[in-house]
Every structure is written in structure tokens, then in C-alpha cells.
Design brief:
43% of the residues lie in helices and 20% in strands. It is α+β, with helices and mostly antiparallel strands. The strands form 2 sheets. The protein has a 4-stranded antiparallel β-sheet with strand order 1-2-3-4, with no helix packed on it. It has a two-stranded antiparallel sheet with strand order 5-6.
Length: 138
């Protein structure tokens, strides 16, 4: 899927060991040494955990590299959909996102509202809810 491809590219860009078999091969080699009595379990586990902990910290520090790939591959939610009804908070148009799960998104408030599945969504006579001011949809 495009998401899976973007994730793999992002992992590879930040730390190639996350998608290449080298880390797993090293762990398997260390397990083999334990099995042969060449290494102690009590030494291998903390060593392996320290490697993964360092990789995690490095990944978190470089996460902006992943964001760049996602921005290039996927349009933001606010840029998709079509205007349907007015938001009860800011009174600006919200966008109807028809892709499942169907939802309404207010780009101004940056709020997203889930809609019932398997229905036809349309504006209901431009009436508003007396409680929250949102325009009603069916």
C-alpha cells in the first residue's frame, strides 16, 4: 500500500537497520552464542535492549524526516473533500470526506467528526441544531 511504502522509505531514510535484516541477524547470532555457551543470557539481553533503546531515541530525534515523506505522499485532510455544511464552532464550511470512514472535517477548527457508515450524507434544509449551531445533515 502507499502507506506501507512510505513507512518503509521513512524507516530506511532514518535508520536503514530498521528495514534491512542486519539487526535481526545480529540478534540471532547472539542467541546462537548463548546456545553454544559462548555468551551469557544476562549479558546479551541488556546489550540488545540498549541497542534498541538507542535506535528508538535516534528515530524520535529524526522523525521530521518521516513527516517530509508523508507530506510528499499524502495530502492533508484539510485539502481533501468537498464543502458541505457549516461548523457550529467557527461558522465556516466543513468538508465532507467520503472515503471510509466517512467524516466531516473543519479545516479552521482542525476538528473531525465521524459519520454513520453506509448512508447518503446530505444537508438537511440548511437547518441548524439549536444546541450547538452545527448545520444538520442526513
Amino acid at each position: 500500500t502507499p502507506l506501507g511504502i512510505s513507512l518503509c522509505h521513512g524507516y530506511h531514510r532514518i535508520d536503514p537497520d530498521l528495514v534491512l535484516p542486519t539487526v535481526r541477524a545480529n540478534i540471532e547470532q547472539l542467541i546462537g552464542h548463548i546456545a553454544l555457551g559462548k555468551a551469557e543470557f544476562s549479558e546479551v539481553v541488556p546489550h540488545s535492549l540498549s541497542i534498541f533503546s538507542a535506535k528508538f531515541r535516534y528515530f524520535v530525534d529524526k522523525i521530521s524526516m518521516m513527516d517530509e515523506l508523508f507530506e510528499a505522499s499524502f495530502s492533508p485532510l484539510a485539502a481533501s473533500g468537498k464543502p458541505l455544511n457549516k461548523c457550529g464552532k467557527c461558522r465556516r464550511f466543513m468538508k465532507y470526506i467520503s472515503l471510509r470512514p466517512a467524516r466531516l472535517h473543519c479545516p479552521t477548527c482542525e476538528e473531525t467528526y465521524s459519520l454513520p457508515p453506509n448512508g447518503t450524507i446530505k444537508l438537511f434544509m440548511e437547518q441548524t441544531c439549536p444546541l450547538d449551531g452545527f448545520e444538520l445533515v442526513l
